[in-house]
Amino acid sequence: MPPVNPHRHQILSAYKYLLYLGRDYPHSKGYPWFREKCYNAFARNRAETDVGKIEEGLKRAEYVIKEIEALYYLKKYRTIKKAYESV
Amino acid sequence: MFRPTLLRAGRLLATKVAPVAPLRAAVRVSAPVVSKPFAVSAIRFYSADAGALSKMEVESRVLDLLKGFDKVADSSKLNGTAHFANDLGLDSLDTVEIVMAIEEEFNIEIPDKDADSIHSVDQAVNYVLAQPDAH
Question: What cellular component GO annotations does this protein have (chain B) (predicted)?
Fold first, then answer.
């Protein structure tokens, strides 16, 4: 077992939340595509030990989460707008 | 509370329907009023035990779930005691996904702290069995 990473919980919960968000990701290949990308993004930094870099990565994860949330808001807004315009 | 409401509804219905078909309306309306209070079997106990899950059932459902998971490297090693990392070649990120799938399968919520302690099939099975609201 590698030494316990103090950020482990944060990282795993960010991953979990991203996966939840990815279920409705508007992409032709859908959720499996998103999962693959998300997994690779996390796995790429698997060996990272520098605390500063890890925190940077967490900030990036948070940024991506916010981006996806914003994307969904926008998608919802556009859908509703379209629905009202067609009336 | 319920009986007066029924009675009132019945009276209302009777006055409305009466001019058209007095006899049939009367019969129909009087039925619920005369009928006995609810039979015992009709009472639902919402907090009753929904039937505890058996260990075998939980294990087979967890294994089915893992069988459908495309990252399991060697499905021949799938058994009741398989370790996610050592036997199935899964890492901590995959374990998160498995925990998510288990949450959905059994309709429970597994807090991060507990999710971190699940490393093998039997640990997952025991955790689910310990949850009273798993089904």
Answer: mitochondrial [2Fe-2S] assembly complex
